[in-house]
From TrEMBL:
GO terms for biological process: carboxylic acid metabolic process. This is Histidine decarboxylase. The modification N6-(pyridoxal phosphate)lysine is found at residue 233. Homotetramer. Its cofactor is pyridoxal 5'-phosphate. Substrate binds at residue 120. It comes from the Bacteria. InterPro entries: Group_II_Decarboxylase, Hist_deCOase_bac, PyrdxlP-dep_de-COase, PyrdxlP-dep_Trfase, PyrdxlP-dep_Trfase_major, Pyridoxal-P_BS. It catalyses: L-histidine + H(+) = histamine + CO2.
Length: 386
């Protein structure tokens, strides 16, 4: 590949920019705690995982052998037998949500999707793409779905096959919808378990819940039919990717034989990035369960530090149970723009990811938030007051 000197300079400038800013993200849940240099040599190859890794295909350069191991790992993590599950490495959490909604729609053609106002924005696109009837349900102050409103809406709609889009860690507040309560309330309505579908959007928290002592319900044992996790968030990846896992008996109903690849396919995109599989494989092979637990505990410790500092300055800051998302009042534009904070309405958040391993990394953004939200802070500090 021949590039001009100007083009090479442009690339080098961008490389320096990336190097300088790789740890900027305290407002977004992308982990920078990874090193996949051992996989660089594979960038010389076009690796395409089209079709079903269970069967293989007639395209020689695939990573199906590695994908089998990755999916076996996540089956165990999300408490379902590997023989009873099927999933794949996707392009990200949105594709996982799309796959699951499509699967639910095929299983329940007359079903309506119910999701909370705190749900990721991808769901609004998905219901339009799939032309599925949908209802947006209000949320509680914690960010959880309003359970009373949910059941009242299902009852009002006389919906016999509701499709529940549950959040295992919402985007802004890190809230987890109570899957057990939802199932209990649906049973009170007279709905048997086989008559509704529950998808768990666990983009970030899917790699948190399995490693805490007292997790909220999140797994197949707890009642989900599918779960979607982002690979570039808590795990970390140079390319956005995700993991989607569902019950095999359901997935087999939407698979189709594709003659020219000598395989079956039930994915959204068909052709898939085989390199992403290598990233996920290397991540799970190079970390023990204890390693992941240490990462999560570090995230919580850093989150508690942020909360303590802000609360000491009389700024309301909090996090939901088993969440590394710290919620606080929305600061001025100069603060959230400077530190790339995510904002929505009257709140903002900081997310403490594994690459944030020292309090000093957090102090600059904390100081700016306090200065902005507590105008007399600088004067009080000079005077030695609290």
């Amino acid at each position: 590949m021949k590039l001009s000197n100007d083009d090479l300079c442009k690339l080098n400038e961008f490389w320096l920019y990336c190097k300088e800013n790789q740890h900027f993200n305290v407002g977004y849940p992308e982990s920078a705690d990874f090193d996949y240099s051992v996989l660089e040599k594979f960038l010389k190859f076009s690796i395409n995982n089209c079709g079903d890794w269970r069967i293989g295909n007639n395209y020689k350069l695939n990573t199906f052998e590695f994908e089998r191991e990755v999916m076996a790992f996540f089956s165990k993590l999300f408490r379902i037998s590997n023989k009873e599950s099927w999933g794949y490495i996707s392009n990200g959490g949105t594709e996982g949500n799309l796959f699951s909604c499509y699967l639910a729609r095929e299983l329940f053609p007359t079903g309506t999707i119910y999701y909370s106002e705190e749900t990721h924005y991808s769901i609004a696109k998905i219901v339009k793409m799939l032309n599925i009837p949908a209802r947006k349900i209000s949320s509680l102050s914690s960010g959880e779905i309003n359970y009373v409103h949910l059941i009242e809406q299902i009852q009002s709609d006389k919906q016999s096959n509701p499709i529940i889009f549950a959040n295992i860690g919402t985007t802004m507040r890190g809230a987890t919808d109570d899957i057990e309560r939802i199932q209990h309330d649906l049973s009170v309505l007279g709905l048997d378990r086989e008559n509704y579908y529950i998808h768990a959007d666990a983009a970030l928290s899917g790699m948190i819940m399995p490693f805490v002592d007292d997790p909220q319900p999140y797994s197949f044992e707890d009642g989900v039919d599918s779960i979607s996790v982002s690979g570039h968030k808590m795990i970390g990846s140079p390319i956005p990717c995700g993991i989607i896992l569902a019950k095999r008996c359901m997935v087999d109903q939407i698979s189709a034989d594709i003659d020219y690849i000598s395989s079956r396919d039930q994915t959204v995109t068909g052709s898939r990035n085989g390199h992403n599989v290598l990233f996920m494989w290397a991540a799970i092979k190079s970390h023990s369960m204890a390693d992941w637990r240490r990462k999560i505990n570090q995230c919580f410790e850093m989150a508690d530090y942020v909360i303590e500092r802000l609360q000491q300055a009389s700024i309301k800051a909090w996090r939901n149970k088993n969440s590394n998302t710290i919620v606080f009042p929305r600061p001025s534009d100069w603060v959230w723009r400077k530190h790339c904070l995510a904002t929505s309405g009257d709140v903002a958040h900081i997310i403490t990811m594994p690459h944030i391993d020292s309090k000093e990394q957090l102090d600059p953004v904390i100081e700016d938030i306090i200065t902005d939200l507590r105008p007399n802070y600088g004067i009080l500090n000079v005077c030695g007051q609290n």
